Amino acid sequence: MRRFHPNSFPLRSLPSTKRISALPNAPFPPTQLIERMTPAQTPQLPQFSPEEWGSIQDPSPSALHALAARISFLSTHSPAAKAELLTHALTHPSSLSVYVKYYPRAPLPTSNKALAAVGNSLLGLFAAEWVHASYPHLPTRAIKAAVSAYVGPRTLADVAKEWGALPLLDGLVVQCIGLLPRSVIALLARHSSLADARNFTHTHFLSRIVDLEHLLNFRAPKVVLVETAAKFGMERPISRLIAETGRYSNVPIFIVGIYSGSEKLGEGFGNSLRMAEYRAAEDSLNRLYLTRQPSHLVRLPTSAFPSSFSYPHGLGSFSSLTRPPAPGEEYVAQELGEAEVLFASSDRSGKQAPAADPSASLGASVVGVGDGIQHAS
Amino acid sequence: MQRLPRGTPILRGQLHSKPSNGHVAFIPQIRKLVFEFCEAWPTSAPLREVLGLHAETLARENPHVEIVVKKRMYREPIVRGFYLNDRTKVIGLKKLTKSEVMDKIQLLLDSSGAKIKSLKGQPVQSTTPSTRGIWSGMHVEEPFKI
């Protein structure tokens, strides 16, 4: 019969740099397993694996306290309460089946699945409202992509790693690691306030770097620019040559600016007039769509929500959502940006109507691109 | 994010953001400090004294660091720093005085854990575009004529 004795497991062969304080505080091996070890039951016993058993142990309190301090998690709560909440946030659903295997009679711990679902919705809400308020003219699909970039699964996994939570989440795949930041947001909203959860999101997620320009990809920037200018009620854009050198050499450079009336919309360079004009149109569109609201003018709709979602009187207290705010705290909605110009979107072929020929789009009377550029006087 | 060729589909699951630690929140890069000392040997005496006097203060002043004290009998004393980039730094504390031990602890606390490399010949690279823009020979009074 196989006896489970501490010395029979090669604990010393574990890498000493990894699990120094992750050593479980529960008795090893589990007493419940030893109690059941009568010869008749031996065949039904699970194959004992120290790694698997170690993975379902509570993380060491010191590691949890350090993690809580690193991310300033619920600073008003007691250390023990924070450690308990973080343990909840770190319990992945996949660990429950292992737990049942080793502790069949113990009550099951709660997994972070429900927390993560709430946290994911909150993260999406906070990110979407912030992106929309900060970049009022950003097209819808770019907003969706930006939200994914700010609070998507890859970012969440990266953030969990940068918090130093990976040693506590040993052996989980990327998708599972992302459940921790989501659960943390949900815990903040539940145990602190919605405003705290929002601040946390802004601090740890929305302050990261995302290249939004990369998300805008115009198939025919010149066509889009003409239509966008019309939509905004501006004069028809005209491209003008600002500077050039080496027109008849093999290394020509042209600088083209696009103007609407006297207003300069954008500028581009290129070794042909056509390329310079294309880049200038793209630059103009980027300048418009990536226009950023100054951060002190950004107004977020969730700031009008009540600070906590505890309903002492049941659902009836939804009236608190419509309660008139205190004087000086009235929420004034931000002005909405113009929706993007949609074209060639009626069918999915991506082909444009024949009338919208990009080469004939700019300038008042244009035949070819080279002719379309009016030289600066 | 690397600039993709035109027409490359942008896949939602692959979108991610780059870290900017210190921009709003700053997360110190040290995660854990492990002190290993011998109870018998005199080479560990300064470390034992430092731990006896200052271990609690150290833990209180650095709540983001998990501090572990471990016996390592009949070996020289060391301090191990664990960092968020999955690297460790180990410093031997044999025959160091108390103040030297404190300095080594501070060194580990302040370190980023990154591999030490020469600062010579490494150009400074910015992650953001310059506010003044790049000088352009085409935007001067009279561009160069070929």
UniProtKB/TrEMBL annotation, chain A:
Pfam family, one: DSRM_MRPL44
Keywords: Mitochondrion, Ribonucleoprotein, Ribosomal protein, RNA-binding
Domain DRBM as annotated: residue spans: 220-290
Domain RNase III: 64-164
GO cellular component: mitochondrion
SMART domains assigned to the protein according to its UniProt record, in alphabetical order: DSRM
SUPFAM superfamilies in the record: dsRNA-binding domain-like, RNase III domain-like
Compartments (UniProt record): Mitochondrion
Gene3D superfamilies in the cross-refs: 3.30.160.20, Ribonuclease III domain
InterPro entries registered for this protein in UniProt: dsRBD_dom, Ribosomal_mL44_DSRM_fung, Ribosomal_mL44_DSRM_metazoa, RNase_III_dom, RNase_III_sf
GO MF entries: double-stranded RNA binding; ribonuclease III activity; structural constituent of ribosome
PROSITE patterns xrefs: DS_RBD, RNASE_3_2
GO biological process: RNA processing
Domain of life: Eukaryota
Primary location: mitochondrion
Region (Disordered): 1-24, 347-366
Protein family: Belongs to the ribonuclease III family. Mitochondrion-specific ribosomal protein mL44 subfamily.
Protein name according to UniProt: Large ribosomal subunit protein mL44
Source organism of the structure: Hydnum rufescens UP504
TrEMBL record, chain B:
Pfam families documented for this protein: L51_S25_CI-B8 (PF05047)
GO CC terms of this entry: mitochondrial large ribosomal subunit
SMART domains reported in the protein's UniProt record: L51_S25_CI-B8
GO MF term set: structural constituent of ribosome
InterPro entries: Ribosomal_mL43 (IPR039927), Ribosomal_mL43/mS25/NADH_DH (IPR007741), Thioredoxin-like_sf (IPR036249)
Subcellular localization: Mitochondrion
Keywords in alphabetical order: Mitochondrion, Ribonucleoprotein, Ribosomal protein
Family according to the record: Belongs to the mitochondrion-specific ribosomal protein mL43 family.
Protein name per its UniProtKB record: Large ribosomal subunit protein mL43
Organism: Hydnum rufescens UP504
The organism's taxonomic lineage, starting at the top: Eukaryota, Fungi, Dikarya, Basidiomycota, Agaricomycotina
